[in-house]
């Protein structure tokens, strides 16, 4: 089962593939950034900014995924703004993670870049 399928099954007869893709990546990015933040804390010295940006990205991705999964009612302007904000936050997190040689940072940067791209596409799909 995937979140894309769950969103597509909603009684509201309107499937937005770009939004489904974004919600999918947002869910993963939220958890991976949270895990990266935890690993950064364990790394110790010099990881404060990386930890902070990973935590911020995780929170913003989580909130955006929750709003994106809601198909009843409508507030496309707010969702579009949140998707755009999330894309910027993911790019910032990825840029910081790319400064470090840790595998957890490499993986976090990768999912954040993918998530940012999908968030931008989803924002454009909202009109």
Structure description:
This protein is an all-alpha fold and 127 residues long. The protein has one domain (14-125): Substrate Binding Domain Of Dnak, Chain:A, Domain 2 (Up-down Bundle), CATH 1.20.1270. The chain has five helices and no strands. The mean pLDDT is 91.
Q: Could you give a quick summary of the protein structure above?
A:
This protein is mainly α. 79% of the residues lie in helices and 0% in strands.
**Top CATH class:** Mainly Alpha
**H/E element sequence:** HHHHH
**Unreliable runs:** none
Give a count of the beta strands, DSSP E runs of length 2 or more.
0
CATH architecture: Up-down Bundle
Structural class: mainly alpha
**Residue share in helix:** over 70%
Question: If you average the pLDDT, what whole number results?
Answer: 91
Radius of gyration: 15 Å
Features:
127 residues; mainly alpha; Substrate Binding Domain Of Dnak, Chain:A, Domain 2; 0% strand
Q: What is this structure's SSE topology?
A:
Elements: H1 3-8, H2 17-43, H3 48-69, H4 76-97, H5 103-125
Helix pairs in contact: 2-3, 2-5, 3-4, 4-5
